[in-house]
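Suppose a colleague, Dr. K., hands you the sequence of a protein chain of 401 amino acids and asks what its three-dimensional shape might be. Before reaching for any lab equipment, you can write down a predicted structure in C-alpha cell form. Begin with the sequence itself:
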Amino acid sequence: MIKKTKAALLIFALLFALTVPFVTVSAESGFVIDNGILLSYTGSQKEITIPSEVVYIGDNAFRNNTSVEKVVLGQSVMGIGNCAFYGCTSLSSVEQTESVGAIGAYAFYNTPYLNNQKGEFVTLNDILIKYNGGSQTVAIPSNVRVISPYTFAYNRNINSVIAGSNVEEIGEGAFYMCGNLSNVDISENTAVIGGYAFYDTPWLKNDQREFLIEGRNILIDCKSEDKNITIPDDVVTVGTGAFYMSGLESVTFSENTKVIGMRSFMGCENLKSVNINDGILLVDTQAFYNCPSLEKAEIASSVQVINDKAFVKGNITIYGEKGSVAESFANANDIPFNGGGILGDLDGDGVLTISDATYLQGYIAGIKSEKPDMSIADVNGDGSISITDVSKLQMIIAGEQ
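The predicted structure, expressed as C-alpha cells, is then:
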C-alpha cells in the first residue's frame, strides 16, 4: 500500500501546477482535463478508464452521471475531489485505487459502490469513507490513516471517539454536529484536523481550555475573550477557523508556529494589524479574508506560500522584503506593498531629489513602462499614482511640506 500524507499531496500539487504545461483535453473520449486535473466527463460510456495524465479527479467531475457503472482509476490518480462521483446511481465498481491518498467530502455519496458495502468501517485504501455502525463508543481501526470529510456528520449515537496513533488526518467536518459527542481522544500523531471537524459537538462546546490544542500541536479553538492574543509557544498550526469572527484586535505568533490555516482569522472585523514573523511557512486560503479593519500585514521572508485570498485588497498594505513571496502575492492581488523604502524615493538612492519627481513624471507620461512600487510612489496616499503625487513630491523636495 502506498502511504501518503496530505502535506505531501499538497506539495506535489504545487509542484505539479508549476511544472506541467497548460493542457486541456476535450475530445471524443469525453474527458476534460486541465493540468492533470479531470474537470468533467461528458461521455456516456458504462465502463471508463481514467486517462494516465490525470493525477486528481476534480470536484463534481462525474456528479449525477447515471451512465457510468465501472471506473478504473489506474496508477496515476492520487486524489478524488468533493462530490466527484456524487449521485452516480449506476456506479457499482471502482478498481485500481492503490495510488489514491486523498478523498473529498461525499465523493461516492448515493452510489451502489458505497451503499452496498456493509462492513462497520468502509475504507478505500487507508481512508475511512463511511461508518455503518451504531456504537456509542467508536475506536477508529488501526488500518485507517485518514478520516475523510463528513464521515460521521450528524451521527447522534456516538458519545465517545478514539482516534489512535495510526490516524494522521481528521477531515473537514468529520464529526460535524454529532450532538452527543462529549469525549474525544486524539493522538499526537494527528497532523491535520480539518475545519468544522467537531463543530457543534458537546466536546468542543464544553472544553474549558483557553486554547484548545490537539494532535500535532494544532490550535483548534480559542475561548479567550482578550482583544490582544499571543499564540502559545507549543502551537505549530493555527487550525482552520480557530479565530473565525472573533473580536480580537491584534495577534502575536509564536516562533514555533509554521502554518496559519485556512480561514483561521476570517471575519475578524476589528483586527488592525498582524505580524507574520520569521519561521512561518504557509498562510493558507482566506486566512485573513473579510477583515475590513486590517491595515498592515508584516510578512517575513520565511513564508514560502500565501494561498488564494489569504489577504484581499482594501485598506491593507503588505510589508516585507523585496523579491519575497509577500511582494509577489501583493503585486498579483493589487495590494500595496512596502519593501522598506522611503516614500517618494523612486530611484532608490535613499534621498528625495528632483530625479525622483522626474522618474514619477516619466511613468505617468508613459515614458517609463515599469510600474513603481505603489507604497513608495503613492505620495499623497490616495491609492493611485497620478500627477498629484508628483506635485506633492515636488513640494516635499522644495521643503514646503
